[in-house]
Amino acid sequence: MPSLPDTDAARAPQQRESAAVVSVREVEHTYGGKGRGATPVTALGPVSLEIPAGEFLVLVGPSGCGKSTLLRLIAGFERASSGEVEVFGERPEPGNQAGIVFQQPRLFPWRTVGDNVGLALKYAGVPRAERAERTAGLLERVGLADTADRRVWQISGGQQQRVAIARALAGGKRLLLLDEPFAALDALTRERLQEDLRTVSAETGTTSVFVTHSVDEAVFLGTRTVVLSARPGQVALDLPIGLPRSGTGPDELRGLPEYAALRAEIGTAVRDAAR
Ligand SMILES: Nc1ncnc2c1ncn2[C@@H]1O[C@H](COP(=O)(O)OP(=O)(O)OP(=O)(O)O)[C@@H](O)[C@H]1O
Question: What is the pTM of this model?
Answer without folding.
Answer: 0.89
